[in-house]
Design a protein that fits this description.
Helix content is about 40%, strand content about 15%. With about 325 residues, the protein is an alpha/beta fold. It starts with a strand and ends with a helix.
Amino acid sequence: MKVWLDTDPGVDDALALGLILARSEFELVGLSTVFGNASVQQTTRNALRLLSLFARHDIPVHAGAAQPLQGQARYAVAVHGDDGMSGLAERLPPARAQAQAQHAAEALLAASRAHADLHLLAVGPLSNVALALRQDPALAGRVASLTVMGAAFGCHGYTGNVTPCAEANIHNDARAAAEVLAAPWRALRVIGLDATQRVRIALPELEPLRQAGAAAELLWQAAQPYAGYYQTRDGLAALVAHDAIAVAALLMPEAFSWRHGPMRVVEGGLAHGQTVQDWQGLARGQAEWDALPAHAAAVDADAQALTELCLQAWARH
């Protein structure tokens, strides 16, 4: 699969990148950065240095949106630290390449025209994808699939992680999310907290990474304070690798439970960033719902199978 990764590195973004680069099923043709876990300047630096860590500085990096389509940017300092990498960004190898001059949205469009059946993975705020759609709405019908890490539909009690109603990536640019989810993609899968938080990798299970290569060891180091956040929040010292689990949906869709229906995003007010899916057809006959295509949402995940897939991939570095 030819893959384009739109990302905001980010500890779990680093783990997602490690999964992509470890699996022969993927050919990563490009990477774009967006604000989110840190500023776009910092996420771009992190992306370039992560590619050096994995010895893949040949992959082009394109910086994208520094702020949402509406509103102000917010960063996940409490979860990922000031540098987006749990304080370890300066321990990454120096970047051996520079970001490309072309903006992320334009680069994504160019890649979608150059590569038949391109798979788009968006694991940060959806600003770059929405900007690309605004320039060329045909993008949705041209790429083979779009996989989004974002949203929370309330399954298993997971309703949000930045507000009681909203998941971070959607909340960070609700307008962009609304536009992306309204587009007629050939195949769109949303992997939200309902699935990702079902996969909690206990810290002892990560220990083999310390005995693998230098890149695997650094991933282990970055995971420690990141998991510490979840220990403080949930009382369990475990890694919740949201973005890597979204990548895994391309490799192992059978490890997820899916439901289908149109999706909308709340903009403004108490529930800003909440993602709603009419999977029961209760809104049928309402024009604002009937105009929307049905997309797939992951509502559960096989924790054991996905943990094994991720650990085996990360250990290859």
